[in-house]
Structures are given as C-alpha cells and as structure tokens.
Write a structure and sequence with these properties.
Layout lengths: L7 H12 L4 H8 L3 H14 L16 H13 L5 H12 L5 H10 L16 H12 L12 E7 L29 E8 L2 E9 L4 H15 L4
Antiparallel strand pairs: 1-2, 2-3
Protein name: Transposase
Organism: Candolleomyces aberdarensis
InterPro entries: Homeodomain-like_sf
Length: 227
C-alpha cells in the first residue's frame, strides 16, 4: 500500500463509524485503510485522548561554537561528507555523541545546508586559469569581443528528453511511459562567435581528445583564417 498522510478528522470519522456498530472490514473497504491502523488509532485515543500520538522529544542538543568552527573547517575541504561520517568524526575527535537528526538541525542553524555538488575536474589547473583571467582583464586585450570563440559539447540519447517531474494526487504515483534503454548516443561539438556558429560536428558516442583536437585545427582555425 502506498504511504499517505491521513488527517485527524479522517481517523476520527473511522473510529466514529466503528463506535456506531459498523464492522471493521466494512470500514477498511470503504475508507481504504488497514485494520491495524484502526486499532492503532483507537489505542491512541484510549491512551492519550487523541487519535494522533503526541510526539515525545527531549531538549535539542546544541554543539558549542568551538566544535561548529571545527565542523566549518572540515566542510571547507570535504563538502561531500555524510552525516554518519560526521557523527563518527565528532565521537572520535571531540568525544561527542549526537544523533544524525540533531546534527542536521545544528548544521542547518549554522547555515550549512544540503546542496547539489558542483563537480570540478581534477585535471583543472587553477594557476593557468588565473593567468588567463589576468590576461583577459589586462591592458594587452582591448578588443570588442569578436576575437573570442566559444566551444561547447553536448550529447543526447533516447532518454534525454524524458521529463523528470510530474504531478499526481496524494497517495498516487506520477507515472510516465517511456523508453528505459538509453539507445544510441550522439555528441555535438560546436564553435560560436558573436556572428553566430562557425563550425559544428556530430559523432556517435562521445568526443575524445584527438577528435576534439582535429575539430579545432581543421574546422575552427581554418574558418578564422588564422593560417
């Protein structure tokens, strides 16, 4: 059975029908709930006076500023740490026992939110990138932008245009009938200036370094009349 959130008045309605003499099987068939749920709601009503069991939660555990500073330093170098790894690190290095839920609350209050990781290529040379930035922003380059050529690669297969999100009523799945096998994959490499596209090439699969080199040498550079 698909999980669904059941409101308080719905639970009270089910118990009201039971108290009026309805058979439990009839209630489960009409309201589409299980017998165990009805028994649990009745037990909550008998024990707590309400169909919803009150949550029991102790005082929140708050990490000290010194520990949070160490956690900040840790995340500056390891952004992809899991909560259980951080729980183990706190236990070993700071002798602190804390649950993942309490740790999540502390991180959220400190501004350390969960985000989509931005992957950076390990082959990237930050020194060369900074040299290029300095060159572009220096006095040596005084053009109007026509000297720039932007090159980009993209790819597609049978699943590229499949939509990832949809809508459905609560308790129901949003389904989409689409291909499961990726199929043939094609990659497109193009070069563009302020005047538009100057070169493009499509290959089956992905571009390798040699194909990329030939594309720049034989199509992009020739179209720019550099040689």
């Amino acid at each position: 059975m698909v999980f669904r959130k059941i409101s308080r008045d719905f639970k009270e309605c089910a118990l009201s029908l039971w108290q009026r003499g309805w058979d439990v099987n009839d209630i489960t068939d009409i309201l589409c709930v299980s017998r165990a749920s009805i028994y649990r709601w009745q037990a909550n009503l008998d024990d707590y006076g309400t169909v919803i069991r009150p949550s029991i939660r102790g005082a929140p555990q708050i990490l000290s500023r010194l520990v949070m500073t160490a956690v900040h330093t840790l995340f500056e170098t390891d952004h992809d740490l899991y909560l259980d790894e951080l729980v183990y690190w706190l236990a070993v290095n700071h002798n602190i026992a804390i649950s993942k839920t309490a740790l999540h609350d502390n991180l959220k209050q400190a501004g350390l939110t969960r985000k989509l990781l931005h992957k950076v290529a390990v082959e990237r040379d930050e020194q060369l990138r900074q040299q290029w930035r300095d060159l572009i922003s220096g006095d040596e380059v005084s053009g109007d932008g026509v000297e720039f050529v932007c090159v980009n690669e993209t790819s597609k297969d049978e699943r590229t245009f499949a939509r990832r999100y949809g809508r459905a009523y609560c308790g129901e799945r949003a389904e989409l009938t689409d291909v499961f096998v990726r199929g043939d994959r094609y990659s497109l490499l193009c070069a563009m200036t302020l005047d538009g596209y100057i070169a493009a090439e499509v290959v089956e699969g992905s571009f390798d370094s040699l194909q990329f080199y030939h594309f720049i040498k034989e199509q992009v550079i020739q179209d720019l009349f550099l040689f």
